[in-house]
Structure formats: structure tokens, C-alpha cells
Amino acid sequence: MKHVYRSIIPILLQLIPLIAFSQNLQLTFEHIGVNQGLSQATVNCIKQDSRGFIWIGTYNGLNRYDGYNFKVFHHDAKDAGSLAHNAIRDIVEDSNGDMWIATLGGGISKFDRKTNRFKNYTHNEKTNSIASNYINNLVEDKGRLWIGSREDGVDRMDIKTGKFTHYPKIKLDTTALSDNFITTIYKDSKNNIWIGTFLGGLNLYNSKTNKFTRFQKWGEKKNIISSSTINCVFEDSRKRIWVGTSNGLNLFVKKDSSFRHFFNDPKNSSSLPHNSVFAIGEDANHKLWLSMENHGIAIMDEHENFINYQHDAIDNLSLSNNTFYAITRDKMDNMWLGGYMSGVNLHKAITQKFNHQRHTSGNSISKNMVTAIREDNKGNLWLGTDGGGL
């Protein structure tokens, strides 16, 4: 029997790239979690630095991954040079190659690569300092660090001088920040700063006037942003700005500052699977990847149709969970996902060179052990399996 399998396997390997099932391409994911050295299973952010390291922020420490092993950094109350806090919300590398860490409760930390130590910046009411120790987001822009807090607006820090400029919400001033609860900060290819908030919509910073333009949901007016609760902002390779909200996906239309909307339609299986969009990324094929609350991920094709991928209990190569907060593409075009109790899910780009079909709980081949393949005169492929029939 072993000799039969040995003769069949090379044939199967040659045929796999040619097989064109009516099913969608099945994605495969490697799972990297606590058993592999990750400090905690809930992942808030994933960033690759200029040296190739993957940095992963959890609620229990900062992780640096070299592809084989983890180096974990924790807060130590007795060590002033340790990480400011264990709850990590965001990570950014500045133009000098320094890593900055946003924490919930400890302000921000700057990592010194030479010493593996941290310099921490915390709120101090008596001096010019960061406005809050509860930080959600970081973005570097021309030597300045934009810092989004959970309750006290935005700070802009001059990295060279350490001086902070504060941007709070100001009542009755529609050119000021719209809300003090910052959910996301994003810098696009033209160095525009976009700031999303929990209840105040989206803000676009004007560097010439030092003021903000607001995009908010009011009433039922058409072509405005679909929700004032902003989860993420992303610019794709075509320079289009996408906004994930609690009520749909939005595409910014620059010519008239309007928005196109994408919503879930229960009658259309190719529509957005769920309206709460948590994170957006783009793969090497210029397809958008979106994560949604408890609905896994969706990939949008060139026809603006969505293909949904979710955790499958009988498929150990599927997603490990269905809620993801981070989507990152690395320099090798691999896609990294992190989220609620999911650890890290890694999709390697090389696997997409093959249409890999495997047994799942959905419409799939009956068993993973394929022993024969035959094409009929109508172009249909018939697969014989070991234990799963034809």
C-alpha cells in the first residue's frame, strides 16, 4: 500500500495547481500562541520593524518575535527601565528606528535597542507632559509623535525636544477635535493625519491651519459617513482611504468629501459579512482584508464582492477564532492576524500559489487523504479518497 501512495503523491502535487473547484480558495493559517512563547492569547497590535522583527502587543506584555523565538518584555514595579505597563495597545517605529509603545495605564515607552531598556513618558500635572496614561494609538510624522488617548484627546510630541502639544475637544468649536476618546490615528501617503473617535466620528487634521475637519453621522443624510464610532482607517495601494466603523465599511470620495458605503445584506452572500469592521489590511494581490466582530475575516475582490473566512472546528488550518483587532502584511507578503483569545494567525503568501482544497465543515472534499484523481469528458474532476468515498 505504501508503494501505491508513493506513486500517487507526485501526481497529486503536479495536479494541485491545475485544479479549479467552484469553491473559494481555502486559506491556511499557522497558529502561534502561548504554547510557542507568546505572553498572552489576546493580541491588540502587530508591527514589523525595519530589522524584520515582528512586535506583538498583548494585555500581558510586549513580544518580539524573530520567526523562531519570543523575547517578552514585562513591567517591573521595582525597575524604572522596564516597560511602563503590561497592557499594550499600539506599537510604532519612528524614522530614527526607535520603537514606541502605547500602554493602557503607563503612558508610552521608548525602547532602547542597545540596552533592551525603556524610557517611559507619563502624565504629570505639574509639567508639560502627556495628557493621559491611557493610550490607544501612536503615529510618527516628521519627527513628531501623535498620541491618541482613551479619555483626554490627542497629544503631539516633538521627539527631539520632548515637548507635548495637546489637542482636546473644545465645546462649541467645530474646528477642534470632535471627541476625547481616540480609537485610531492613521497617516496616509500624503502625510495627512486621520483621527477616529469613539462617538465623535472622523477628524482630518489640517497642518496649515492647525485645525480639524469633522466627518460625522447625523440623521439620514446620504453619502455621509455611516457611523460616528470609528474603529480603523486604512489607505490601500490605489491611494483610497477606507474607514471601518461600528456600522459598515466606508470608502472616502475625495472630490466631494463624501463616502461610499458597504453593508451586510442578509440576502446577498457576497456582501460584507458583518457591519462592525475592526481592522483593515491589504495583501500582495491588492485585495482588502477586513476583520469583523465575531465574523472572522472577509477578503474583498476586484468586483467589490466579499469572501468570508471563519474558524472551523474540524479544520486545524482555519482561523483560530473569529474576532481580530490587527491585520499586518510583512516584507515577505505574509499576513499576520491578532485578536481576542486567538494568538497570532499567520497566512504565508507562498501557500496562495496553490489552490489547496481540504476537508472542512463546509462544502469540501470528504477526506484529506486523496488517492486518485480522474477528469471526465465534461471537464469535471472526480477524487477518490481513503475512507471518504468518491
Short summary:
With 390 residues, this protein is mainly β. 4% of the residues lie in helices and 39% in strands. A hairpin with a 5-residue loop joins strand 22 and strand 23.
Summary keywords:
single chain, 390 residues, mainly beta, 4-stranded antiparallel sheet, globular
Report on this structure.
This protein has 390 residues and is mainly beta. It has 1 helix and 30 strands. The protein has one helix at residues 2-15; strands at 30-32, 43-48, 54-58, 61-65, 70-73, 88-93, 99-103, 108-112, 117-121, 135-141, 144-149, 154-158, 164-167, 182-187, 193-197, 202-206, 211-215, 230-235, 241-245, 248-253, 258-262, 277-282, 288-292, 297-300, 306-309, 324-329, 335-339, 344-347, 370-375, 381-385. The strands form 8 sheets. Strands 1-28-27-26 form a 4-stranded antiparallel sheet, with no helix packed on it. The two termini are 19 Å apart. Residues 1-22 have low confidence and may be disordered.
SSE layout and pairings?
Elements: H1 2-15, E1 30-32, E2 43-48, E3 54-58, E4 61-65, E5 70-73, E6 88-93, E7 99-103, E8 108-112, E9 117-121, E10 135-141, E11 144-149, E12 154-158, E13 164-167, E14 182-187, E15 193-197, E16 202-206, E17 211-215, E18 230-235, E19 241-245, E20 248-253, E21 258-262, E22 277-282, E23 288-292, E24 297-300, E25 306-309, E26 324-329, E27 335-339, E28 344-347, E29 370-375, E30 381-385
Antiparallel strand pairs: 1-28, 2-3, 3-4, 4-5, 6-7, 7-8, 8-9, 10-11, 11-12, 12-13, 14-15, 15-16, 16-17, 18-19, 19-20, 20-21, 22-23, 23-24, 24-25, 26-27, 27-28, 29-30
